[in-house]
Amino acid sequence: MKSYVLDSLVKYHCFNCNSEFILSEYREKQAKKVNCPYCQNEDVEAYVYARDEELLNGLGCLAIAHHEDPGEEKYVYEMTWGRIEREREKYENRRDFKA
Ligand SMILES: [Zn+2]
User: Fold this and answer.
1) What is the pTM of this model?
2) Which of 1, 38, 67, 78 could covalently link to 82 via disulfide, CB atoms 3.0 to 4.6 Å apart?
3) Ligand 1: distance of its center to the CA of 27 in Å?
4) Does CATH place domain 8-60 in 2.10.260?
5) CA 15 / ligand 1 centre spacing (Å)
6) What is the DSSP letter of 74?
7) How far apart are CA 43 and CA 31, in angstroms?
8) Residue 93 burial (CB < 10 Å; 0-12/13-18/19+)?
9) What are the structural domain ranges in the chain?
10) 65, 2 in Cβ contact below 8 A?
């Protein structure tokens, strides 16, 4: 895919539960606010930025990326998460039928 680009990563600290978590810098910029994924508190602070491609590859973070072409993004979404959504729907329908 032509428009596929690695996202820089941002490491956060949560002052409420003392946990650390990593976000894509691209997604961070899109978000209105950042909450801790563990306790949902907003008292979080970004403190490490990883922007070097070699380092990102070394961390095995190739899958944390995005497509700059929205059409390509939609296609790739359909091929992975879209299929999983349909499978989940089938499973939920089957479960409702049995209940
Ligand atoms: Zn927290």
Assistant:
1) 0.65
2) 78
3) 19
4) no
5) 7
6) H
7) 15
8) exposed
9) 8-60
10) no
